[in-house]
């Protein structure tokens, strides 16, 4: 879908590349800081998660391209069907993300105890995100300047 509108694709690639670059810098900076507190600020974590999900264009594209295929005019109003499918998707995602968050929380507590491991994880995350940002930005710039 985005490939049919090259300017939008380039814009999404640029925004995604810049966002990944920012995340890479943030991860590298956190590796040099003091260890995080034993209990993270849940409000800050929740705010960051909500912002990340709201700014994720893949979610909107998924719903626009995928969910209408599971609707039918014989089964009632389209908006009710889409709302129901969206709610099912939301609840399944909430269950999965909650389980993942609980597991990550336990793993995070273990990493806090070992400062060296936490620094290594932050540096690997920073390098990985930086490499992904470079690849995405290279693709976007290649599309802009043939």
Order of helices and strands: HHHHH
Number of helices: 5
Q: Tell me the quaternary state.
A: single chain
Shape: flat
Return the structural class: mainly alpha
Number of strands: 0
Q: How many separate domains make up the residues? A: 1
How would you characterize the largest beta sheet? Answer: none
**Secondary structure: helix percent:** over 70%
Beta-strand portion reads under 5%
What does this protein look like?
The protein is mainly alpha-helical and 146 residues long. The protein is 79% helix and 0% strand. It has one domain. The protein is built from 5 helices and no strands. Helix 1 (6-32) runs antiparallel to helix 5 (115-144). The chain is flat, with a radius of gyration of 20 Å. The model has no long low-confidence stretch (mean pLDDT 82).
Summarize the model shown.
The protein contains five helices and no strands. The protein is mainly alpha-helical and 146 residues long.
Mind sketching the topology for me?
Blueprint: H1 6-32, H2 42-54, H3 57-66, H4 78-113, H5 115-144
Helix pairs in contact: 1-5
Please describe the structure with a list of short key phrases separated by commas or semicolons.
146 residues, mainly alpha
């Amino acid at each position: 879908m985005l490939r049919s509108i090259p300017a939008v694709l380039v814009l999404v690639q640029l925004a995604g590349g810049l966002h990944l670059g920012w995340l890479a810098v943030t991860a590298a900076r956190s590796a040099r800081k003091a260890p995080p507190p034993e209990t993270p600020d849940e409000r800050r974590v929740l705010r960051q998660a909500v912002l990340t999900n709201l700014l994720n264009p893949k979610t909107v594209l998924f719903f626009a391209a995928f969910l209408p295929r599971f609707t039918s005019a014989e089964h009632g109003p389209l908006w009710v069907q889409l709302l129901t499918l969206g709610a099912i998707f939301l609840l399944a995602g909430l269950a999965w993300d909650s389980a993942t968050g609980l597991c990550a929380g336990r793993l995070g507590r273990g990493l806090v105890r070992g400062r060296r491991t936490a620094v290594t994880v932050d540096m690997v995350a920073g390098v990985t995100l930086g490499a992904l940002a470079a690849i995405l930005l290279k693709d976007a710039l290649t599309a802009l300047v043939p």
